[in-house]
Design brief:
CATH class of the largest domain: Alpha Beta
Radius of gyration: 17 Å
Strand content: 5-15%
Order of helices and strands: EHHHHHEHEHHEHEEH
Number of domains: 2
Number of strands: 6
Length: about 220
């Protein structure tokens, strides 16, 4: 049995979905008048209920009762046509030799659709965990702890790969090593701090191999 288990976030880490999810907000609420880039930065990793509350406050009126369903339908349309893995992710998963799973704040149907549309389902099988099933959302560590238990690993045997601050906070609270996927950043081997940073998915297996020496 491997000494390590790799827990992947989904949105913004394995799949390039943050822009599509926020584009759906702009499509449905054009009065927001904000750039897609600033929307992504504002809402990265945030629980949908909190985003919807913030959007209602920003436009000065309650969102329609069916807004969440309408939003999810629009996201689904965009996923089917435009969702792609983040650069280098398929090649990374082909070479990664450790047990792995997905732990995402999204509902199970959205996670399944994203993995299917992006071609990543075959790399994870049933090893997919949702906050909606556990009742715990990042930065609470509950989702990551549940994923570790389900995979048969203790927290100190898990490495979390995340792109959002709340995900990194959840990993730290769970007592897990974290790698911050930050596209374009310099590759780092600085373990022993709160987290390491990787700018290219191609570098991730090498970074994980380095971490495994201390487990």
């Amino acid at each position: 049995m491997s000494r390590l288990c790799i827990i992947f976030d989904l949105d913004g880490t394995l799949v390039d979905s943050e822009g599509l999810c926020n584009q759906a907000f702009l499509d449905l609420l054009p009065e927001i008048g904000e750039t897609l880039e600033s929307m992504v930065e504002r809402y990265r990793g945030t629980k949908l209920a909190l985003i919807l509350a913030d959007l209602g406050a920003r436009i000065g009126r309650p969102l329609p009762p069916n807004f969440e369903a309408t939003y999810r339908a629009r996201v689904s349309e965009l996923f089917r046509t435009d969702l792609r893995p983040t650069p280098g992710t398929i090649e990374m998963l082909e070479t990664l030799s450790y047990p792995k799973c997905v732990a995402s704040s999204g509902p199970p149907t959205k996670i399944a659709e994203a993995l299917l549309s992006s071609g990543l389902s075959k790399y994870f099988g049933d090893h997919v965990f949702s906050s909606y099933e556990v009742g715990s959302w990042k930065p609470d560590p509950g989702l990551f702890l549940h994923a570790a238990r389900s995979m048969g690993y203790s927290p100190n045997q898990c490495i979390v790969v995340e792109d959002s601050p709340v995900g990194l906070q959840a990993a730290a609270a769970a007592g897990m090593t974290a790698i911050h996927y930050l596209p374009g950043s310099q590759y780092s081997e600085m373990f022993g701090q709160s987290h390491a940073v990787v700018g290219r998915m191609a570098d991730l297996p090498r970074l994980i191999d380095a971490a495994s020496q201390g487990v």
